[in-house]
Amino acid sequence: MAKKYYSLVGVDGNAFAVMGYTAKTLKETGNGNLVDEMHEEATSGNYYNLLAVCDDYINIANKSLEKGMESNKLIELLEGGIDKKYQEHYKQGIADEKARQKGELCQACNLD
Q1: How far apart are CA 8 and CA 37, in angstroms?
Q2: Per-residue confidence (pLDDT) for residue 97, from 0 to 100
Q3: pTM, to two decimals
Q4: 57 burial class (0-12, 13-18, 19+ CB within 10 angstroms)?
Q5: Following DSSP, what letter does each residue of 94-107 receive, concatenated?
Q6: Is the CB of residue 30 less than 8 Å from the CB of residue 64?
Q7: Of 46, 91, 100, 105, which residue is most buried, by most CB within 10 angstroms?
Q8: pLDDT in tens, 23-34
């Protein structure tokens, strides 16, 4: 069963522990498809980059819990009838979520 809220506070500061916790969080919230992408981004810079990237992905996991649906279930709904343009746009994943976190509108489909 998934927690109600995830945070890096209290997680061992070792880089592998942080990435492991983030990967586990993504999987528990139905965002397991983002784990490889998270690992690639997290290891592309220094330790501070790793922390920032992992925190971003933890926020994505928490947002997915707030919506009341896991990302995989949302994709299933999208494939069940919402127009193709939005399906492709949603599948872009992290870029869209980061734009939403900044309060920007989704330009490709005019949804926020």
Answers
A1: 18
A2: 59
A3: 0.59
A4: buried
A5: HHHHHHHHTT--BT
A6: yes
A7: 100
A8: 999 999 889 999
- Residue 48 pLDDT exceeds 90: yes
83-103: average pLDDT: 55
* CA atoms within a 13 Å half-sphere pointing along the CA-CB vector of 42: 25
Q: 3-class SS at 7?
A: coil
3-state secondary structure 38-92: HHHHHCCCCHHHHHHHHHHHHHHHHHHHHCCCCHHHHHHHHHCCCCHHHHHHHHC
Per-residue pLDDT reduced to its tens digit, 57-80: 999 999 888 776 545 555 555 455
Contact 21, 8 (CB under 8 A): yes
At residue 84's C-alpha, the angle toward residues 82 and 75, to 5°, is 60
Closest CA to 112 of 91, 89, 88: 89
Residue 8 CB: number of other CB atoms within 10 A? Answer: 15
The torsion defined by the Cα of 61, 63, 64 and 67, in degrees rounded to 10, comes to 160
